[in-house]
Amino acid sequence: MKPIVIETAPDNVKVKLDNRPINLPFEIRQQHHHHWEQQIGKNPSLRNGAAYTITKIDKNPEELEVTVAKTDYKHYLFTLHHEDCAAPCKVIYTCAAVITSDHHIAIGRMNEATSTPGRLQFTGGGLDESDLVGSIFDLEKNICKEIKEEMGVDIHSSSTRSFLPKFIKHKGSHDFWAVMYELSVHSTAEALHTQFLKHNQQLIESGQQPEFDELLFIPLEKAAIEAFVQNESSPMVDYLAPILEKYTES
């Protein structure tokens, strides 16, 4: 795996939309189509919605400005499964480290019906058209929505202690970028887990498929995190182990 870079988030992070859509060559679109047909044969629940690929990055210590253009989920999924492919879909997404009052960090295991079944990661997701305000993506709205959808936690409720951008992740296998938030809550790990199970049950009863099959809580202690990273056999998103290790440093 290519190394990733994790940096402290600058004061200002902006993601803006270039309204000119990506125009891919015919042969590349055909590759995406054939791969998509294979994937939906394995997982019929996949849907080919909008995705956004990075076209320009302006970065300095005080500000990160990312320009994206519209493409589709076929493009993203092909990139995810084909490292170093031509014309990759280089996405930017949000995620959040959720910290409980008894000093545990929450990690989700992706549902088998998703594009990354069984993968361990923080709550989060890709940008969506509903996050647009004019030509600017509202990143806080995006991650708040993901936390609510995946964990059943409303960050605007009294359960929130603090909520702020923490890190920026880039490089790695596909050079996907991530804006990482930290959400501290008043709930204990046990209480948050109970809330998560109730939330998932409500989703299932309404005919929806939860994003996370399971929510794990790792103590924010050096020995516990090192043991988890060394012994966990499930696939992990590329940022997970490095971010957990950063929390042991602090």
Q: What report would you give on this structure?
A:
This protein has 250 residues and is an alpha+beta fold. The protein has a single domain, classed as Alpha-Beta Complex (Nucleoside Triphosphate Pyrophosphohydrolase), CATH 3.90.79. It contains six helices and 13 strands. It has helices at 26-42, 73-81, 139-151, 189-205, 222-231, 240-249, and strands at residues 4-8, 12-18, 50-60, 63-72, 92-99, 104-110, 120-121, 123-126, 132-133, 136-137, 160-171, 177-185, 212-219. Helix 1 (26-42) packs across helix 2 (73-81) and helix 5 runs antiparallel to helix 6. The model has no long low-confidence stretch (mean pLDDT 94).
Brief summary of the model shown:
The protein has helices at 26-42, 73-81, 139-151, 189-205, 222-231, 240-249, and strands at residues 4-8, 12-18, 50-60, 63-72, 92-99, 104-110, 120-121, 123-126, 132-133, 136-137, 160-171, 177-185, 212-219. The two termini are 25 Å apart. Helix 1 (26-42) crosses helix 2 and helix 5 runs antiparallel to helix 6.
Biggest sheet descriptor: 8 strands, mixed
* Shape field: globular
Element-level helix/strand string: EEHEEHEEEEEEHEEHEHH
CATH architecture: Alpha-Beta Complex
| Helix/strand structural class | alpha+beta
Tell me the strand percentage band. Answer: 25-35%
Q: What is the CATH topology descriptor?
A: Nucleoside Triphosphate Pyrophosphohydrolase
First-to-last CA distance: 25 Å
Task: Compute the number of helices.
Answer: 6
Q: What is the number of E strands?
A: 13
Helix content: 25-40%
Determine and state the CATH class: Alpha Beta
Protein name: Nudix hydrolase domain-containing protein
Organism: Cytobacillus citreus
InterPro entries: NUDIX_hydrolase-like_dom_sf
